[in-house]
Amino acid sequence: MTEHQRQSVSRRSLLAGVGAGLSLAAAGCLGEESASITPISLDGERACDECGMIVEDHPGPVGQIHFEDDEPEGGRPGQFCSSVCTYTYLFDAEDAGRTPLATFLTDYSLVDQEVFEEGSDTMFSSHVESEAFSRTTELTVVARSEVVGAMGPELIPFSEADDVDSFVEEYGGEPMAATDVERSTLEAL
Length: 189
Description:
Elements: H1 3-35, E1 63-67, E2 78-80, H2 83-95, E3 100-106, E4 115-118, E5 121-124, E6 133-135, E7 140-143, E8 147-149, E9 152-153, E10 156-158, H3 161-171, E11 174-177, H4 183-187
Parallel strand pairs: 5-8
Antiparallel strand pairs: 1-2, 1-3, 3-6, 4-5, 7-10, 7-11, 8-9
């Protein structure tokens, strides 16, 4: 290897290392910002940013998304009356180039939900208090169960594996990591 080739390889290695370091630093800053985000309460007359329904007036899981920018929510997180609305809004926002920092859903492992029947539908109570939420990175959702929410068929989230197993045993459905939900998941509901 000539001296010029060694310098060229060395320069490329240096630039690659600097680029990787900058990427990690940016990711670290974003990670720190994301880690410090906590859920808010969705009580009162808060309307769903996806469908316009009042969040606390409807059964089932609810959600919120904290974005890097504050538009169009105006300085508050996006708020949603169902996990389906949460994911639909998230996918549309990502397609529009927005960066979500943290997404939270009701965590039925944290709350004492009430189960009720409305006609032939089985529903879980809604929980809008800030301590009822967990990050989607910590949740398993159950799709295609007998339990419906505000928008009909729903993804029911849990942070504890035993709760997922008990739920599936009683209400059926297919568990999956909440971070694995895609548009096709919603379409299959």
